[in-house]
Specification:
about 210 residues, about 30% helix
Length: about 210
């Protein structure tokens, strides 16, 4: 069973529907016991980093997440859940979880797309994701596949954690992490077949990790 973190940051229902479609058992929860019993954690979110971190710290979920990651529990962060795994976000001047070294940055509105047109902020739309190194959750996904993005800020992790990039005015990190701990700036649950493949890959990793223990 996968635990979908419930910390009032929205988007949990969309993730559950995608997992239901794949036949993957899951539960939306903030219960530390349920999270501990899960084979993996999905850390979704939409909205502002400051509001999300306030809810995590007030409920104690920040400590739960860190403890589970330290124990080796696989985790997938999505959108805001991707950003606040880092040390800091300038959005709301937010001290984040600090699980992955790095911080967030906001798109500069003076940037242009490949055709010279100015970018729009927030970035909303479909873009390709270019792997920079082997990444289990991206296996089996065609290079031309596109994923759905909605964000104004993007992650800037330490270089060793950058797994894939996307171009939107600049090449920015769209997937970061390490084996067993991944974060994606896009929304796999809203990205059709490629997104479903990514979620299935994550679940397969969680099952293999659970069986190995």
């Amino acid at each position: 069973m996968l635990a979908i973190l419930d910390y009032k940051a929205g988007n949990q229902t969309s993730v559950r529907r995608a997992l239901d479609h794949l036949g993957i058992p899951c539960r939306i929860t903030s219960d530390p016991a349920v999270i501990a019993a899960a084979s993996g954690i999905i850390f979704p979110g939409v909205g502002a980093a400051g509001q999300a971190m306030d809810e995590l710290t007030q409920t104690g979920l920040d400590k739960v997440i860190k403890a589970q990651v330290d124990a080796g529990k696989p985790l997938l962060g999505i959108c805001v859940g991707c950003q606040i795994l880092l040390d800091y976000s300038p959005e709301n001047d937010t001290k984040a979880l600090g699980i992955v070294s790095g911080e967030c940055a906001m798109f500069n509105r003076s940037l242009t797309e490949e055709d010279g047109a100015p970018i729009r902020v927030p970035h909303m739309g479909w873009n390709r994701v270019k792997p920079l190194r082997d990444c289990e959750i991206l296996r089996g996904i065609e290079p031309e596949a596109e994923f759905y993005f909605v964000h104004s800020y993007y992650p800037v992790p330490a270089p060793e954690f950058v797994l894939a990039e996307t171009f939107y005015g600049i090449d920015f990190c769209s997937v970061h992490g390490r084996p067993g701990l991944w974060a994606v700036q896009f929304h796999p649950e809203k990205s059709g077949r490629p997104g479903l493949t990514l979620l299935a890959n994550f679940n397969a990793y969680c099952r293999e990790a659970a069986h190995a223990q």
